[in-house]
Structure formats: C-alpha cells, structure tokens
Amino acid sequence: MYDELVIAPGDVVADRYRVLSVIATGTRSVVLWAEQRLGQAERQVVLQLFLDASHETQRAANDLAGARMRERSMAPWLAPIDFGMTTSGRVFLVFAYVDGFDPRHLFSPPLSPAPGDFVQERYRIERVVEVDDLAVTYEGVHEGLGQSVQLYVLRSELAGSESHHRQIVDLALTSARDPDSPRRVVDVGTLDDGRPFMVIVPPRQ
User: Which one in 4, 16, 21, 27 has a CA-CA gap of 20 to 30 Å to 192?
Assistant: First the structure.
C-alpha cells in the first residue's frame, strides 16, 4: 500500500521532480504524476518510485529500466528519460508523458497468459488471483489430473530480466525444500517467451 510517509504530493525527488499526485500503487512501487522544471518551462512526467531501499531492489529496478528501454520499439509511448536514487536510497524511474496516454496502462499491461489459456498444454488458466510488480498469480487446473493449482508467472515486461528469473527460481527451490512452507511446489518450467513459472498446490483448508 502507498505509504504517505515515503513520499507525498508537493515533495521533490532528486531536486528536480515535484510530485503532483498518485496514479497507482503496487506491492513494490508507487507510480506518481510529477512535474519537471526545464529552465523557465515545466513538463509533466510519470515517476515510478520503488518502496524498498535494498540492494536487491536497486538491481531489480535497473533490470526494469532496461526492459522498458527494450519495449520502446513495440510501444512508442514508452519513453524512459531518467533513473536515479532518492536520498533515502529508493530507486526511481522517470518516463516522459505522451499527450493523451493513460500512464496507468504502462504499469498494467495485458496479462499473459490470460484466463482460458493453457500453460505447457496441461495447466488451464481459470482466473487471476493477484498481480504485483514482479509476477502474476493464477488459479488453474491440471487438465490430466483435474487438480486445482496456482501458477506463479513472471510478468511479461520482465521477460529479459535475469535477476527476476533468479528470484522466481530461488523462491521455487526454497518452497520445495521447506516442508512447512505454505507453497507446495509441484512443477516449474519456462514459457515460450522465456519467462519462468512455478506451479503450487494450494494448502488444504
């Protein structure tokens, strides 16, 4: 949830971006309208501020910046223009605003896979459970066994991120090794676009 103690409208980020309002919030970041002063002129920008100040988050934000740059050819409205760190150690990304574009779409891209799709021809996606900045959690069914499962899939715009791949794999391995883990991992794999996923059997009620 967005924490007003982290940053609030009227605050200035990196001595050059004045926060105007909150656009959207996620589990790892908050997306803000901001204003950048350019000499005597000003322009509106979209600022994504990562809430965690850890080194791992700094690396993840760097990967995300690279992913956004790679997407520019597919989505001309994507225009990352700056990347830095606040005095509190929180990483931020800045995007130029293209007139007429709703910036909420930038951080809520079409989900892939979508309900009704199949993963590796055996897991049918039924519904989206949760979306965060790293991955999408789905409820689905193993078609052969008729068993309810959850699928945890790296988000599509992070397909080229090596550190995020490592996070998914490490999470799967940790869950598989821990008998007390609420996540019982029964399968791991890779989608056609290279994104890793893991399949979890929900705990018995």
Answer: 27
The phi, psi pair for 151, rounded to 5°, reads -115, 130
Other beta carbons within 10 angstroms of residue 152's beta carbon come to: 23
> 16 with 87, same domain?
yes
The pLDDT score that the predictor gives to residue 73 is: 44
CATH code of 87's domain: 3.30.200.20
Shared-domain flag, residues 167 and 82: no
Band of residue 2 on the pLDDT scale cut at 50, 70, 90:
very low
Between 119 and 73, residue with greater pLDDT = 119
Residue 139, pLDDT score: 92
pTM of structure: 0.50
Domain that holds residue 48: 12-107
The answer to whether residue 129 sits within a structural domain is yes
